[in-house]
Amino acid sequence: MKVTAKTDKQLNSTLMGTMLGSSVLGIYIDKAQRIAGVSIFEKVQTRVFNNGGGKNSKGQSFGTYNKKYKEVRAKKENRTNSEINLVFTGDLQRDFKFGVNNGDYCLGFEAEPNGKNNPNASQKSEWLEERYGDIFELTTSESNEYTETFLFELDKQLK
Q: Helices (H) and strands (E) in the chain — how many of each?
């Protein structure tokens, strides 16, 4: 999986070390990470693939389609929006996943096709980020929300 955003690994490592890393605590931390990660994944999906026009990690709009490409979108897919939203066939959005990479929870794309995913999704995401800036990284707000959700879920389990 091409990692586009990692959860707060430093925070999680600190918690593991501070709390002696017991196996039960490890289960609680893992569950809190998954809950926080899924919550943030949904927010990033909405920010990036919004039909009204997506935004990069700095909150900047991707801009608008040029006239010729807008006509192609209208003709092929009956899409009339002028704001760039990274959705044409929906493949890129479907291939954007929340998952595990080298033991860390992350958001990203499969780097190698596994028969179901678009083999070019990882490459497309790199090209898009060259063009529009960091897209799939967490915004400061998303990162803060991940941390708050993680701590809330961990605290809930420890009570």
A: 6, 3
Closest CA to 142 of 40, 11, 8: 40
Q: Which of 150, 144, 146 is nearest to 30 (CA)?
A: 150
Q: Whole-structure pTM over 0.85, yes or no?
A: no
Q: Which residue has the tokens 């595990």?
A: 100
Q: Each residue of 42-71: pLDDT tens digit?
A: 999 999 988 677 899 998 998 888 888 888
Q: Which two tokens stand for residue 71?
A: 């006509």
What are the contacts of 89-94 at 24+ separation with CB within 8 A?
A: 91/118, 91/121, 92/49, 92/118, 92/121, 92/124, 92/125, 93/45, 93/48, 93/49, 94/118
Instruction: Mark out the alpha helices in 20-139 (DSSP H runs).
Output: 23-48, 67-77, 91-95, 121-132
Residue closest to 136 by CA, chosen among 98, 101, 82, 104: 98
Count of CA atoms in the C-beta half-sphere (13 A) of 41? 21
